[in-house]
Every structure is written in structure tokens, then in C-alpha cells.
Amino acid sequence: MNSISARYAPHIAVMLAVVLIPVVIHDYVGWRRDDCANPGVLIPDSYAERQPEKRQSFMKSAFAADQWREGRVHGDRGETPLSYSIIRSWNAKRVYYRPAHRIAPARKPSGEHLKWVEHKGERIPIHVGDFGKRTLGGVRSLSVYALLYDSQPVANPYWTQLLAAPSMLIRGSQPMTLLIVSGHVPTAEYDRSEERGIHWILNSLDTYWAVCSP
After folding, report:
1. pLDDT tens digits for range 41-69
2. Which pTM does this prediction carry?
3. Which residue, among 117, 92, 101, 95, has the nearest Cα to 182 in the 3D structure?
4. DSSP states along 3-72
5. Which pLDDT belongs to residue 20?
6. Burial 138-148 (b: 16+ CB within 10 A, else e)
7. Pair 92, 82: CB distance under 8 Å
């Protein structure tokens, strides 16, 4: 077994302590602040209460969701509908760690890659699931999502949480927001469906910023 040189031990201890700050703040101290000025407008609290208990339990166990909403993304040319979910949780890791694996567990991506999309003069990081080109009965799986923390799109959630850890000691933790679109579509529809999912995410980001700005 390889051993770590003693001279690196203090640096590693500091890094581990910083990484644990979000966990301590959320689970034990309970300091919270919401980056959304109108969370009840973004996702009405009554939405989750009207959903089947099984789905409510799933959202709690899979994402520790504090707010969530789901629906369908329809095409304008009769394409296969996609599913969307908006999930917000103060337990950030439960949201950003492999969300596509849990939102549609029947088919899991082997990985994911970032797709940078130009939107109103900014580059938005979109996380795209890597399912390869394998099909099942001529159908391909699809997942695209965006993460928001402190109202900003997140490319690397691990790095984002690391950088935010010191401010959490003063200002408290904030929720991580997930905007995800997934589905199973015919191979011929795949490219258009991915574009439709990304378009929905970009529109949802605009709505988020409009509703959540103070």
C-alpha cells in the first residue's frame, strides 16, 4: 500500500475539513439562506403534497428534495415527449452526484460530458449523459441537465462546493437546484430531442432568474 508523505498531511487535513463544511453546516448547524427570493412562486409548496406518496418518498430518499416539480416537454412536430424535473435541496451532494442515474434508473449513462451552450451572451454548462449509441428496439436514452448554486450555472459541483465552503461559515448553506430532462426516444429523433431538452433548460434558467431575483 502506498503511504502519504507526512509533509502533505496538514494540507490534506485542511482540504478534508473544508470539504466537510457543507455537511456540518447542513446536517448539524442548520444555517440556511435561499438564493431565490420567491421559492414558493418558482415551485409552489402544494405541488409535492398533491403527488402520490410513492413519488414523494422517492424524491426524499433519492435527492433529499426540499422542493420539486415534474412534467413533460413536448415537441412541436409530434416527437416523443420528454420528462423534466426541477429539484432543489440543501443537501447539495444528493442533487449533483449522478442525478441521471436516479431520475431514470432503468438505463444508466456510463458517464457524462459538458456541452457549453451560448445563451444571451453567456456560456452555459449543460451536463449530457453518455449512453453511447446503443439502442433497445431502435430507442436511445437521453439525459441533459443543468445545476444552479447561488443562482449561477455550475460546471464542476465539487469545485463549486469547495470554493463556497468558507462563505458558508458566515452566510450559511444554500440549496443546489437541478434542472433535468430525460427520456427514451427513437434514434432518428435523438439529436432534435437533445436540442429540445437543452432549449427547455435555457428557458427554465431565464424563468429562475426572473422569479428568484430580489
Report:
1. 999 988 998 999 999 999 999 999 999 99
2. 0.84
3. 101
4. PPPGGGHHHHHHHHHHHHHHHHIIIII--B--S-S-HHHHS-HHHHHTS-HHHHHHHHHHH--SEEEEEE
5. 52
6. ebbbbbbbbbb
7. no
Confidence check: pLDDT of 5 > 70: no
Virtual torsion, Cα 92, 95, 96, 97, nearest 10 deg: 110
Q: Does residue 25 register a pLDDT over 70?
A: no
Q: What is the dihedral of CA 111, 138, 194, 134, to 10 degrees?
A: 20
Of residues 70, 104, 84, the one with CA closest to residue 199: 84
> How would you class 12 by CB atoms within 10 Å of its CB: exposed for 0-12, middle for 13-18, buried for 19 or more?
exposed
Q: Which residues contact 203 (CB under 8 A, 6 or more apart)?
A: none
Which set of grid coordinates corresponds to residue 27? 446536517
Q: Copy the grid coordinates of residue 81.
A: 415527449
Q: Count the neighbouring beta carbons within 10 Å of the beta carbon of residue 23.
A: 15
